[in-house]
Design a protein that fits this description.
The complex is a heterodimer.
Chain A (H helix, E strand, L loop, with lengths): L5 H8 L12 E6 L6 E9 L2 E10 L2 H14 L4 H5 L3 H7 L8 H4 L2 H20 L1
Antiparallel strand pairs in A: 1-2, 2-3
Chain B lengths: L3 E2 L10 H7 L15 H20 L7 E4 L2 H15 L6 E5 L4 H12 L3 E5 L9 H7 L4 E5 L13 H10 L3 E5 L11 H4 L3 E5 L10 E5 L14 H4 L7 H39 L3 E3 L10 E6 L4 H9 L3 E2 L15 H5 L4 H4 L2 E5 L6 H21 L1 H13 L1
Helix pairs in contact in B: 1-9, 2-9, 3-4, 5-6, 9-13, 10-13
The chains are: A alpha+beta, B alpha/beta.
């Protein structure tokens, strides 16, 4: 019996939106190598919408699938909509994650939110 | 697709001769060896043949062999049983920092029962210094346990030298030989130990069966109370098919030790020599030569072990890793950390457990499919991106 759902495997084998954005509007980094997983999300924002998302992930199969899924779920969404993505909604879209992996690998939403907060902070800083 | 099983440290396949030897005991010879009728006689005969075969493998007397349910049980039995039997003498034991969890966690249980446990460190190759054992022996030390070899990094420990120290100090010495018995020559008299654990599924025998060898005259408290099986030291109706399989596997291992070692070493050395030339920033863990013949272990920097396992699996290759993500406890291998590796590097652990069925073509196939997998994961890794940027900056 495989450890991961078909959906997790599919995203792990063919991850969407891997990479970096040179002139990103916001960057969010979470995790550390001690717990095992690290994720960096890069976003481009246009008219309050996520125009482009890229990520880099160091970690297990679940961590890579989570990153890919988050990028797909958030693409084209407004910032408010993207902020509503939760670890649970990501896990649901992935047809479940192994129980023990739920917290450590499921950092994608957090990394995306951090990138959005980074963008909002920079924007605010620019105006002042 | 080519299928390449390189996870023989997890378990080995069962040899056809072993399976054939077991089958009668899953059919007509189903009896209970405690019974004195014909059915009992047949089962008992199978069991005693196996006891001789296992004793022969490790240079012991048959009556010193206690069959158990696994290597883990043998280790639990030795650590808890030998400590408890001597608790009037003292409540201090010494183990190494790289023992298997079945030793580590048994020692932890002893701590809960009022014992003190000292862990001696290892060097960067995973070697225990016998002098560290000597320094830590106290008046109340009743047991030392150091593994014969570590399955994760292949390091073979100086058991004879440690045994000299324990004998001088009159302390019982147990060694976990699960990674070595049936793989390299193991002789209890040469090693000079008092107790030794082994397991059938590490040398082409069945799972669910192991043995503890206990030097005559060494006292132990049973883990399982009940009938007088195994001389009253391990109660419960014996797993006869498993025991017979273990015996047959021991006999075959004894007969072909040298040829097996030669074969495994050739494959191991090809992997150890070539993998680092094909993959940048791949470090060998453990000692380059003083290691188990079938063990080739590495850390591949900037990426994580489980994702490597999954991509290798998609290419038909089975390996394992000591990364945190691979372990169900989600902790990086205590062995690699004890050897001084950082958590980030330990995350890239990759272990090839080569078996007697593997061929040089299998190794060639792995050397073909692994570099693109590493490359793919590095392109995804923020750690690698940072490393590349620093390298460029440095230039």
């Amino acid at each position: 019996m495989p450890v991961y759902s078909q959906k997790v495997m599919e995203h792990f084998m063919n991850p969407r939106n891997v990479g970096e954005i040179e002139d990103a509007d916001g960057i969010g980094e979470v995790g550390n190598p001690i717990c095992g997983d690290m994720m960096t999300f890069y976003i481009k924002v246009k008219d309050n919408r996520l125009e482009d998302i890229k990520f880099k992930t160091f970690g297990c199969g679940a961590a890579i699938a989570v990153s890919s899924m988050v990028s797909e779920m958030a693409m084209g969404k407004t910032l408010d909509e993207a902020m509503k993505i939760t670890p649970q909604s990501v896990a649901d879209e992935l047809e479940g994650l192994p129980k023990q992996k739920f917290h450590c690998s499921n950092l994608g939403a957090q990394a995306l939110h951090k990138a959005i907060e980074d963008y909002l902070k920079k924007k605010k800083g620019g105006k002042e | 697709m080519r299928k390449v099983y390189l996870d023989n440290t997890a378990t080995t396949p069962i040899l056809p001769e072993v399976r054939e030897a077991m089958l009668p005991y899953l059919r007509e010879a189903f009896g209970n060896p405690s019974c004195i009728h014909e059915w009992g006689d047949a089962a008992r005969e199978g069991m005693e043949t196996a006891r001789n075969q296992v004793a022969e493998l490790i240079g012991a007397s048959p009556e010193e062999i206690i069959f158990t349910g696994s290597g883990t049980e043998s280790n639990n039995f030795a650590i808890k049983g030998l400590a408890l039997a001597q608790q009037n003498k003292g409540k201090h034991i010494i183990i190494s920092a790289i023992e298997h969890f079945s030793v580590m966690h048994s020692a932890k249980t002893l701590e809960k029962w009022g014992f003190e446990v000292t862990q001696v460190p290892v060097d960067k190759y995973g070697f225990v210094d016998p002098e560290d054992v000597r320094k830590n022996i106290r008046k109340d030390t009743v047991l030392v346990s150091v593994m014969h070899a570590n399955g994760e990094v292949g390091t073979i420990e100086p058991i004879q030298d440690i045994a000299r120290v324990t004998r001088e100090n009159n302390v019982v010495f147990h060694t976990d030989a699960v990674a070595t018995a049936g793989t390299i020559p193991v002789d209890v008299k040469e090693l000079g130990v008092d107790a030794l654990s082994l397991a059938g599924n590490m040398f082409y025998g069945p799972k669910g069966v192991g043995a503890l060898w206990l030097r005559k005259g060494v006292r132990i408290i049973p883990l399982l109370d009940g009938g007088v099986q195994e001389g009253g030291r391990r109660a419960g109706t014996e797993n006869i098919p498993g025991i017979v399989g273990l015996g047959k596997a021991a006999e075959l291992a004894k007969a072909s030790t040298e040829t097996r070692i030669e074969h495994l070493t050739k494959l191991r050395d090809r992997l150890l020599a070539e993998l680092p030339t094909r993959i940048e920033h791949a470090v060998i863990t453990g000692h380059p030569t003083k290691r188990l013949p079938g063990n080739a272990s590495f850390c591949i920097e900037f990426i994580e072990g489980e994702s490597m396992i999954m991509l290798l699996n998609s290419q038909g290759v089975a390996v394992t890793s000591g990364s945190a993500c691979t372990s169900r406890a989600l902790k990086a291998s205590h062995v690699l950390i004890a050897m001084g590796l950082s958590h980030a590097i330990a995350q890239g652990s990759l272990l090839f457990g080569i078996g007697i069925d593997n061929t040089i073509e299998d190794v060639g196939y792995v050397l073909e499919v692994l570099p693109p997998i590493v490359d793919r994961l590095r392109q995804m890794s923020p750690l690698y991106a940072k490393f590349v940027k620093t390298r460029k900056g440095g230039k």
